[in-house]
Amino acid sequence: MLRLEGLTVTPLTDLPRFDIALGTLLPGADPAALAGLGWLGPDALSGGMVHLVIRSWLIRMPGVKILVDACVGAGKDRPLRPEWHRRDGTAFLAALAAEGLEPDDIDIVFCTHLHADHVGWNTRLEGGRWVPTFRRARHLVGRREYLHWQAAARADPAAGHGSFADSVLPVMAAGLMELVGPGFSPAPGLRLDAAPGHSPGHMVLHVDHGAGAVLCGDVLHSPVQLARPDWSSAFCSDPARARRTRRALLAAVAARGGHLVPAHFPDPGWCRIRADGAGFRPV
After folding, report:
1. 52 touches 222 (CB < 8 A)
2. pTM of the full predicted structure?
3. How many structural domains compose the chain?
């Protein structure tokens, strides 16, 4: 648990390990460029495989409980990703219960973007229908992100593993989704900001409490990208823009001395960083 002044940030893990080959995740990555980085331990990279965690972040502050991103979910048809396909998903609900919470206790769900591994638990299957999991929550989604995936799904229902249909539209139909833009404040001391590149409308959450933190979704996937922020992922819609966004965000976090809180880093899932040559490293 990350403790900041007036709030806590707790990981809720859906998939504790999801491996992708270095060259598949980060096209053009040169393993030799990572030589000598003792801080890049085996929990992040070993045997040429990048080790990712798929998790949500639970923010608790007086009067509000916020879930940042909603992982893979359960029962979803994801045949192109066997690890995600028709899962039971019990670990995620167990992690929420371990915090003394039920889905109806969540006040706000913020999805940094609408990729399948960030929206899955927005819905669950009941009576053969996908219905909102967090029935009392306002679901905050970037307007640009929503419109992009709405158009993509209309052109090809299989776009994004079909997640727009099963994990986004049911929430909108229930009247629980609010489309927002940069500068929106979900709660005191919290602020959304644009961070495009990985997806067209990707946003991050700035926490201006204590030392501060940025919950940054997929601006970067792995500590490998601290050392080499010029390496964009194969899943970035605009790799060059993702590179610019990543460099600017990492420089800002390092300058402030706050916490970097991505979606997929190894445990504990967050770190402080400092500049190190052409890249950055954990402090």
Report:
1. yes
2. 0.95
3. 1
